[in-house]
Amino acid sequence: MRRFAFILHPLRFDDFARKYPFTRYLPPKLVESVFKHIDPVLTGHVTGVHSPTGEELEGWLIGLPLTPQLILNSPYEWVLTKLEKAGKMAEDLGAEILGLGAFTKIAGDRGVTLSQRLNIPVTTGNSYTTATAIEGTLAAARRMDMDLATAHVTVLGATGSIGRATCFVLAPSIHHLRLVARHADQLDLLKARLTHQFPHLSVDISTDARSAVRDADIVIAVSSAPGAIIEPEDLKPGAVITDVARPRNISAVVTQKRHDVLVLDGGVIEVPGERADMGFNFGFPPKMVEACMAETMILALSNRLENFTLGPEIEISKVSEIHQLGRQHGFKLAGFRRFERAIDDREIERIREHVRHPKPHGISHSVT
User: The Quinate/shikimate 5-dehydrogenase/glutamyl-tRNA reductase domain covers which part of the protein (predicted)?
Assistant: First the structure.
C-alpha cells in the first residue's frame, strides 16, 4: 500500500462551507480573519485507489483554511510556517509524498524551501497539469476541426510555471503563439528563448489579456489572477478555451452568453479503482480530481518518492514522463468538462452549428 498526502485550501468563500456549514451565515471578512489563526486540519481520507499494476493507494487531504488573497498577500515565512505544519501532519499520518494544491504551490519559491524542511518529498503537480491540459486542448481542437498549422494560440499566464512549460511543449506543433502575462520584460525573455529554439514559430507578446484573446483560435488560461479576467465579449467564435487556473480565468458568464465557443475545465482526472473514494467533495463526480493531486498519487503509486516538480520552471522531460506514468496506472482525462459539467458530442455539435450559422439577433458572439 502506497501513501500520499495533499494540501488544499478554499478558492472561494463558499468553499469554507464544504467543511464548516455554519460559515455561510457569517460575513466573509470575519470568516477569513478567524480562520487565518487556525492550524491545518485533516479534511478527507482517500481510499480504494487501485492501479492496473496491482499497487494500491491511500491518502489524506489536509486543509489549510486560507483564501488565495491571504496566501498571496501575507509574508511568505508566515505562509511557509502553515505549510510546514501541514507537511508535518502528513508525515505523522504516514504519507510518503506530499502534493501542493492551488495557491499553496504558487506562494514563495513554489515548494523548494518547504521540501527542505520536511522529511518527505514534495511536488506541485504542475508537470501532470501541463500534460493533461495540452492533451485535452488538442483533443478539443481536433473535435472542432481546427488546423494547428494555421491556428492562433494564446497562453494566459505564459511566464508562470505551467504557462512556460505549455509553450515549450506546444511549440513544435503550432506556428502562431501569443504570450500573455503582467510583466513585459519576462515576456521578452520567454519570447527570445522560444524563437531561438523553434525558428518556425511566430511569437508575439501582450500584457492585456482581454485584447490578446480576441483573435485567438485556442486559449490556454493558466494565470494566477485571483479572479476571472476574460469575459464573453472577448472571445472569437469557434475558439477552444482550456481554463486550467483555479480560481478560473474565464468568467462563468461565458457559458451562458457564448454558445459559439468551447470552454473546457483543464486537468480534471479520473482515477483508477472501482471503489475509489476521494473522501471530499471537490465539486466533481466520484473518482475525479485535479491533475495536481493526480500527479502526487501517480508518483506514490510509482514509488517515485522524490521532489518531482518544484520551483518556477518545469523540466519539459518530466511532463512527458509523468504523462506516461499516469497512463500506466490507469489515470485519464475525465472527458470534456466545463464548470464541473460533462460536455457530450451533441453539445459540441451545437457549438459548431452556432459557428457555421451565427444568429444575427442572438447572444452567441455579440460584442458590447
Answer: 141-257
